[in-house]
Write a structure and sequence with these properties.
This protein has 412 residues and is α/β, with parallel strands linked by helices. It is 36% helix and 13% strand. Strands 2-8-7-6-5-3-4 form a seven-stranded mixed β-sheet, with helices on both faces. Strands 9-10-13-12 form a four-stranded antiparallel β-sheet. It has a two-stranded parallel ribbon with strand order 1-11. Strand 3, helix 6 (136-149) and strand 4 form a beta-alpha-beta unit. The protein is globular.
């Protein structure tokens, strides 16, 4: 590619960054000055104010107030309070999201509870449809839940869900965005199809929350789960969340009833009586340090429109794909991420026969993405802190690495 063309794309990137309404958000994150971080779809970057907030949790709230912090520092109400902060990011009204436990634990709660809700519709609903391309743990958990509840797992591609639905379908567990390819599935349409069949829709939002509008309430989703350490930047292992639509809360029968979800948690009675509302999704003592780390991290979302995030995400991924096409040697990489905006999340996945050595060298050059074996290079675009110059630099570095590594099967 000519230097003139290179200069033109670099110049465009600078102009796009100068016009970006979210550009100032970048300063809120701890980032390498000379690096490009494109792995926020696995672990979000650290907001710079979080360490001081966590220090307060450790030294004052725990160190000085100790047990008084359950009341005085608001520890006891943190799961619901933080859930209400996540709610606008996924299109939910307050009082429907509780934070706590891991994504896997919440998948288990949601699947079993959905099966129990579906049983109220009558006998014979003994099938759980599961996204055949799902993140493996979702499938493992759903299969275990099916064994426990006497259901049968039916793996199905998301696009084939409408045809697979029937009178035996109890619930459908789907990923909003495919973690490998970045494909965005049709949450409104699939949820409507599930409901038309009399079943319950459960969505995994791990790769969409914080990257694009979800519309849980608007589209009538029944139950949803998601992690907080990707686009929500909550930190490694930060607690997940569980959404239970208000209309289902009275019937939500958790398979993991704990003292924290009891109507009278300090009554210590032998019989379980579930609390009202989203509190039913709690189990045991909240993981306070990581939970309050997440709460602090969510400050970066104050005043941010998810629609603006989505617009920038699409513009970034469009521009990156354009740069890759312009820079990369012909035939070395192929996008497996849909070109259509309506079908794209906030990542770009490129198929490359030499994916492992290519990603290793990119990381050595300061361009951090990740790979999904055997042959997918994955680049996540977090609009709050990734810019267009980052996208251009990453594509240029990819082209340089591909030029250095001979194609598989070549005589070089």
């Amino acid at each position: 590619m000519s230097e003139t063309s290179l200069d033109a794309l670099r110049e465009r990137a600078l102009k796009l960054d100068a016009a970006d309404p979210l550009a100032e958000r970048r300063a809120l994150f701890a980032l390498d000055h000379d690096g490009v971080y494109l792995d926020g779809n696995s672990l979000g970057a650290l907001p710079v104010h979080v360490p001081a907030r966590v220090q307060d949790v450790l030294t004052r709230q725990w160190g000085e107030l100790r047990i008084r912090s359950w009341d005085e520092s608001g520890w006891w109400t943190a799961p619901e309070r933080i859930g209400d902060r996540i709610a606008p990011l996924v299109g939910a009204a307050a009082g429907q999201i509780v934070v706590g436990d891991s994504t896997s634990v919440n998948v288990f709660k949601a699947v079993v509870a959905a099966a129990r809700i579906a049983s109220h519709a009558g006998e014979g609903r003994d099938e759980i449809l599961v996204d055949a391309t799902t993140f493996p743990t979702d499938g493992y958990i759903a299969a275990s839940a099916a064994r426990l509840t006497g259901h049968r797992i039916v793996p199905v591609a998301p696009a084939d869900v409408p045809a697979a639905l029937g009178p035996r379908t109890a619930l459908v567990l789907l990923n909003h965005v495919d973690y490998r390819s970045g494909r965005l599935h049709d949450l409104p349409g699939l949820t409507a199809a599930v409901h038309a069949a009399g079943a319950v829709a459960v969505w995994d939002l791990c790769h969409s929350a914080g990257a694009l509008p979800v519309g849980l309430d608007e589209h009538g989703v029944d139950l949803a789960i998601g992690c907080t350490y990707k686009y929500l930047n909550g930190g490694p292992g930060s607690p997940a969340y569980l959404y239970v639509a208000e209309r289902h809360q009275a019937a939500f029968d958790s398979p993991l009833p704990g003292w924290n979800s009891h109507a009278d948690p300090f009554g210590m009675t032998p019989e379980f009586a579930p609390a009202d509302g989203s509190v039913r999704g709690r189990v045991g003592t909240p993981d306070i340090v990581s939970m309050l780390t997440l709460e602090a991290a969510l400050d970066v979302w104050d005043g941010v429109s998810v629609e603006d995030v989505r617009a920038k995400s699409l513009a970034l991924t469009d521009f990156f794909l354009e740069c890759v096409e312009a820079y990369a040697p012909a035939g070395r990489v192929t996008s497996v991420t849909p070109a259509a905006h309506a079908e794209r999340g906030s990542q770009v996945a490129l198929r490359c026969d030499e994916a492992e050595p290519v990603m290793r060298r990119l990381i050595e050059r300061g361009v951090v993405g990740d790979l999904r074996r055997p042959d997918v290079l994955r680049f996540g675009f977090t609009p709050l802190y990734v810019g267009f110059a980052d996208a251009e630099r990453a594509a240029r570095a990819l082209a340089e690495v591909l030029a250095e590594i001979p194609p598989s099967g070549s005589a070089a």
